[in-house]
Amino acid sequence: AFLILKKKGSRSTTGTLFHCDDARCARSGGFHPRPGLAVQTLPRAHPLRPTAATALLPPDTEATMTEPRLTLNDGRSIPQLGFGLWQVPAATTAATTATALRLGYRLVDGAAIYGNEEGQGEGIRQSGLPRDQVFVTTKVWNSEQGFDRTLRAAETSLKRLGLDHVDLLLTHWPCPSRDLYLDTWRALIRLREEGR
User: Known catalytic residues?
Assistant: First the structure.
């Protein structure tokens, strides 16, 4: 993640670059300056809301966080940096997700087995961001593999998330000994074609 600082109201597309090495420093606002490095603000950059990362900025300075994206084979893109919800307690998932999105994350990675999909969806809604600005990932658990079971598992996840589609639905683990991964993959392709 990158934090770009520039004077408020400036029309410049460049600013001072600060770099965050991992998710913990982004959550705590521990961005580190990269002196002498000019950077172009990317079109996907967005203003940060007041957080620990911006609380100590001079009053005439604004902050923008950018998140590089990777282009997938089908032409869509995915943020390079995501916020994972593994081991986040269900009771705090909504607040954790909303905070991560307010700090600038745009990919939220969950899974049915994590037991916190409801909070993932609620956190997305609480963030105030339009749905098309959040890349949502969840996963089909091992016991739900096979064509029909995967379709049902996807529908269950969508209901828990309170969403009409996810941006990326993964097989949590292929479980080759069960020999269902091809049927599972076929179901994932169908869901993608249906826009689910």
Answer: 114
